[in-house]
């Protein structure tokens, strides 16, 4: 069966061969109400029996996992920004001032570089994007990665052979090989729970409803309304990330409302499915091969003359 490799796609599950299927389900993560409690990280680990991450504290922030990985299917990013930027998007989020400058022995203390308003924290619970065009799935040689009837992307660890092709294919750096195990792991969007009509564990545990689970079309409408609300309140810099079906991956099944540039949260600004250029690459390879054959034939005929 063939399926499209890029561009907007109306029926993701249908494109993957599911004839009668439920609506596409996904996540809308509204980072403007994330308080960084990490209940989602804990709930994900508990429900899915994900082993601990190594617990190597970075010493740089309250973010102790650093990034998504084979044993970190949810990652709560803590982004600390200096005061100058806080005025752009002041939501009354928790913040703290800089430490009082120590007085110099012979005069007043140095003024802190971070100025009056101190620091603001941006928090965001990151996860697999369950892309419309999932390169991880397209390159998997064993069929371990598959598209579910809900339009989500799931890896079946029991038939993963650990080749690792999916790891560089993912434009977001999500899927990963677990050291000591050798197989690839990532968020399943709680396939076992949603099949029973339950909410994924992370969304269920989120106390502020920053992580919202539901039908993707409805979530996109809700996100548009929330963005309008923030703009009305004068919040500068708010934007949706992954909600546009015209983007490089055809839109994400898990998308976000961010308060700053994606790079600030460690997200790629313009992700593109790595299989997008496959067709044109093969066309160029075919043209080059034909050219070589032509040169070979011409030199053979020229030699005979
Ligand atoms: S974010 Fe990466 S791992 Fe998740 S579906 Fe997309 S390509 Fe696959
Ligand atoms: S949907 Fe399930 S597997 Fe995915 S991050 Fe949430 S709890 Fe973990």
UniProtKB/TrEMBL annotation:
UniProt xrefs under Gene3D superfamilies: 3.30.70.20
Region called Disordered, residue ranges: 84-117
Gene Ontology BP terms: cellular respiration; formate oxidation
Keywords associated with the record: 4Fe-4S, Iron, Iron-sulfur, Membrane, Metal-binding, Repeat, Transmembrane, Transmembrane helix
Pfam families linked to this entry: Fer4_11 (PF13247), Fer4_4 (PF12800)
Co-factor remark: Binds 4 [4Fe-4S] clusters per subunit.
TM helices/strands, residue ranges: 281-301
Protein name: 4Fe-4S dicluster domain-containing protein
Top-level taxonomy: Bacteria, Bacillati, Actinomycetota, Actinomycetes, Micrococcales
């Amino acid at each position: 069966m063939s399926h499209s490799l890029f561009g907007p796609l109306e029926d993701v599950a249908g494109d993957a061969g599911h004839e009668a299927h439920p609506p596409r389900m996904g996540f809308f993560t509204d980072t403007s109400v994330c308080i960084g409690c990490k209940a989602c990280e804990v709930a994900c680990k508990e429900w899915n029996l994900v082993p601990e991450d190594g617990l190597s504290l970075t010493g740089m922030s309250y973010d102790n996992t650093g990034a998504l990985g084979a044993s970190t299917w949810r990652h709560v990013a803590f982004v600390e920004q200096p005061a100058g930027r806080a005025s752009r998007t002041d939501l009354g989020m928790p913040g703290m001032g800089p430490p009082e400058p120590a007085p110099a022995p012979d005069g007043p203390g140095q003024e802190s570089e971070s100025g009056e308003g101190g620091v603001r924290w941006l928090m965001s619970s990151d996860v697999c994007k369950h892309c419309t065009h999932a390169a991880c799935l397209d390159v998997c040689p064993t069929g371990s990665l598959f598209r579910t009837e809900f339009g989500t992307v799931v890896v079946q660890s029991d038939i993963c052979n650990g080749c690792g092709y999916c790891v560089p294919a993912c434009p977001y750096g999500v899927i990963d090989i677990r050291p000591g195990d050798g197989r690839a792991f990532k968020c399943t969007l709680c396939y076992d729970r949603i099949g029973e009509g339950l909410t994924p564990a992370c969304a269920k545990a989120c106390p502020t409803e920053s992580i919202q689970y539901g039908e993707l079309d409805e979530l996109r409408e809700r996100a548009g309304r929330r963005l309008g609300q923030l703009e009305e309140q004068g919040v500068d810099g708010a934007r949706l990330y992954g909600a546009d079906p015209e983007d490089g991956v055809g839109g994400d099944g898990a998308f976000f409302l961010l308060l700053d540039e994606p790079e600030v949260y460690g997200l790629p600004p313009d992700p593109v499915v790595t299989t997008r250029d496959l067709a044109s690459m093969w066309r160029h390879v075919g043209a080059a091969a034909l050219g070589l054959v032509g040169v070979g034939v011409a030199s053979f005929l020229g030699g005979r003359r």
